[in-house]
Amino acid sequence: MSTAYVIVTLVGAALAGFSAVSVFTRAKWVVEPITAYGVPESWWPLLGTAKAAGAAGLVAGVFVPPIGVAAAIGLVLYFLGAVVTVARARVYSHLVFPLIYMAPAVASLALL
């Protein structure tokens, strides 16, 4: 396991964890856009939980690589869904944000 893999994976876990906390605490800069995208408020706890699980899985994957692979794939799929949601809402200027969160998960898969 390379140093680059560990660093990229932990950065990805930190980003996913930060994103999860932002949803759980209903940070204004998160709540306003996802409301505008049409995401029902009842989904927010599930979305935060998925991100938190992905973050935990990435960290666990440093020690048990198959868990990290599963977590990274899950986060990639999650953030692809976010890209689709933002695009469907036609808020194209926001497309970069889910891509930023997805990038470390993709990179961790590539570095394995």
Provide an overview of this structure.
This protein has 112 residues and is an all-alpha fold. The chain has helices spanning 3-24, 28-36, 44-63, 65-88, 96-111. α1 runs antiparallel to α3, α1 runs antiparallel to α5 and α3 (44-63) packs antiparallel against α4 (65-88). The chain is globular and about 40 Å long. The model has no long low-confidence stretch (mean pLDDT 96).
Give the termini distance in whole angstroms.
7 Å
Strand percentage lies at: under 5%
Unreliable stretches (pLDDT < 50, length at least 5) are none
Q: Structural class from helices and strands?
A: mainly alpha
Rg over C-alpha atoms, rounded to the nearest angstrom: 14 Å
General shape: globular
Counted beta strands: 0
Overall pLDDT:
96
Helix and strand string, N-terminal first?
HHHHH
Largest sheet: none
Descriptive terms for the model:
112 residues, 5 helices, 0% strand
Task: Draw up the topology in text.
Layout: H1 3-24, H2 28-36, H3 44-63, H4 65-88, H5 96-111
Write a brief structural summary.
The chain is mainly alpha-helical and 112 residues long. It has helices spanning 3-24, 28-36, 44-63, 65-88, 96-111.
